[in-house]
Amino acid sequence: MDPADLDWTRIGAELDERGWALTGPVLDAADCERLAGLYERPAGFRKTIVMARHGYGRGEYRYFDYPLPDLVQRLRTGLYPQLAVVANRWAERLGTAGGFPDTHEAYAARCHAAGQLRPTPLMLTYGPGDYNCLHQDLYGEEVFPLQAAFLLDEPRADFEGGEFVLVEQRPRQQSRPEVVPLTKGCGVIFAVRDRPAEGSRGVHRRILRHGVATIRAGRRRTLGVIFHDAT
């Protein structure tokens, strides 16, 4: 599906309400297999991270190098314009600097001017016993406030466990967890670091972190689409 054809009215409303939204089906089975197969060709990636070596969890991921594969590039540039509308709305509500441009090309130029030159879209792969600790994908001072992840395998058919988890920190309250019901070819769009929310004292900032629960069996692969580049 062309990202422009997604239900952006619903997605925008859900992002405003809770900081995440499902895209619905975006990638077909052939797209998922094509993307998953890229992982076996390291020449297309700039860096491989073995998570256990850094205390990130267990599993492995690789950052794509420029030029990005065509499908990854189309997702990044196709999702961005509607997300920039949400990002600017959030910045206005929080009273922070926004002014995110209309196109990802223009936003990438801003990242590069800030010294963030390395691409951040990535592929993640998990096997039995693997997991991803709660974290935020921050790579420099320039941060686009939303990102996306697309599941490339089918829960309960290709793997067991491995739920995508979001935890939101709420002022003067206990943190709230969410288990996101992803299916193969579907994506979740979510806050990178924080989001605005209404409270009894007006708009406040809620901090979010995301991770992946332990894989009990099988293999789970994911495409992550992050819009800011890295230093």
Explain what you see.
24% of the residues lie in helices and 36% in strands. The longest helix is centred in the middle third of the chain and has 25 residues, at 70-94. It has 231 residues and is α+β, with helices and mostly antiparallel strands. A hairpin with a 2-residue loop joins strand 12 (194-199) and strand 13 (202-212). The strands form three sheets. It has a seven-stranded antiparallel beta sheet with strand order 1-11-7-15-5-4-2. Strands 3, 6, 9, 10, 12 and 13 form a six-stranded antiparallel beta sheet that branches.
Q: Can you give the helix content as a percent range?
A: 10-25%
Structural class: alpha+beta
Number of strands: 15
Arithmetic mean pLDDT: 95
| Largest sheet properties | 7 strands, antiparallel
> For the largest beta sheet, what order do the strands appear in spatially?
1-11-7-15-5-4-2
Distance between the termini: 32 Å
Supply the number of helical segments: 4
Q: What does the radius of gyration come to?
A: 17 Å
Give the overall silhouette. Answer: globular
Tell me what portion of residues adopts beta-strand conformation: 35-45%
One letter per element, helices H and strands E, the order comes to HEHEEEHHEEEEEEEEEEE
Low-confidence stretches: none
